[in-house]
Design brief:
Layout: E1 9-10, E2 20-21, E3 33-35, E4 42-43, E5 56-58, E6 67-68, E7 80-83, E8 89-90, E9 103-106, E10 114-115, E11 127-130, E12 136-137, E13 150-153, E14 161-162, E15 174-177, E16 183-184, E17 197-200, E18 208-209, E19 221-224, E20 230-231, E21 244-247, E22 255-256, E23 268-270, E24 277-278, E25 291-293
Parallel strand pairs: 1-3, 2-4, 3-5, 4-6, 6-8, 7-9, 8-10, 10-12, 11-13, 12-14, 14-16, 15-17, 16-18, 18-20, 19-21, 20-22, 22-24, 23-25
């Protein structure tokens, strides 16, 4: 039914056995709402892409949906989305450029594991609670979500990696990084102009803070977890409000890379324990830095 611009509504019978809504099935139509049958397990690539009138998608409480594929609702006019509990993957650009999408909800027993690249990028979501079993937030998943202020993680979150640009250029104000996260990738929180507070879960397993991870954000202080071995290039570059960085007394840090804290407002640094390799310009142009102790 792709590009059938006169289609405004599709109704399925209550006993529908439909299992797959195929690629491009209803893209570029004039649908304004749709109820997905209970036995549908997959919404295919671009199935509802560019449905500019589509404001509402409903799922039965016992929905068997497992996957929302690439660009499934890209550039639609959805305002709210409740993701069925059996969904394990939200695909690449699934809700990309949904400019009216403010709220996305997951059930407490959500089985979601992967939020793929650009999944919610350029949407208008304001808050998001990441389900417990999500292990990876992929590249640019929430990038340029200019209204996104709040990100919450389940206390038992299984998240391990926050990928490149995952939350860059969003409006988040604070974040608690779950304990199992081992790596924050390149530019994951860069250009987050309102991000002032970063905390890490108890017994954090974080090992690497990636290149430009928090650059040009508004963080004011940060405590680097014990297990971090590397702060990569420009990780905190141009964090002009950053005055205080603390390290665990038993820190395992081995290297602070080029320009890691360049152009920040650090006033003092204390690094205890074993020797740390400090590379070129790591603290360059930190005009308020008066004390540096090992």
């Amino acid at each position: 039914f792709s590009q059938c611009q006169n289609i405004q509504r599709i109704d399925f019978t209550n006993d529908s056995e439909l299992q797959i809504i195929g690629n491009n099935s209803f893209s570029f139509t004039s649908l304004f709402m749709i109820s997905i049958p209970v036995h549908v397990v997959q919404i295919g690539r671009s199935a509802f892409r560019s449905c500019e009138n589509l404001q509402k998608v409903e799922f039965p409480q016992n929905s068997e949906l497992q996957e929302i594929c690439e660009s499934a609702f890209d550039s639609s006019s959805l305002e709210f989305m409740s993701i069925p509990s059996k969904v394990t993957k939200i695909g690449n650009s699934a809700f990309h450029s949904c400019q009216f999408l403010k709220s996305v909800e997951f059930s407490e027993n959500s089985e979601l594991q992967i939020i793929d690249k650009l999944a919610f990028a350029y949407s208008s979501i304001e808050t998001i609670s990441i389900p417990r079993h999500v292990k990876q937030i992929e590249e640019s998943a929430f990038s340029s979500c200019e209204y996104l202020k709040t990100i919450e993680f389940n206390p038992k979150s299984e998240l391990q990696i926050i990928k490149k640009n995952a939350f860059s250029s969003s409006s988040i104000e604070s974040i608690m990084i779950p304990s199992r996260v081992e790596q924050i990738d390149e530019s994951a929180f860069s250009s987050c102009d309102y991000l002032k507070t970063i905390e890490f879960g108890e017994n954090s397993e974080l090992k690497i803070i990636g290149e430009n991870a928090f650059s040009t954000s508004s963080i004011e202080s940060i405590f680097i977890p014990k297990g971090v071995i590397q702060i990569q290039k420009s990780a905190f570059y141009k964090c002009s409000n950053l005055k205080k960085v603390e390290f665990n007394p038993n820190s395992e840090l081995s290297v602070i890379c080029e320009s890691a804290f360049e152009c920040s407002s650090l006033e003092s640094i204390v690094i205890q324990g074993h020797s740390v390799k400090i590379l070129n310009k790591a603290f360059s142009l930190c005009e308020n830095l008066r004390t540096f102790e090992f």
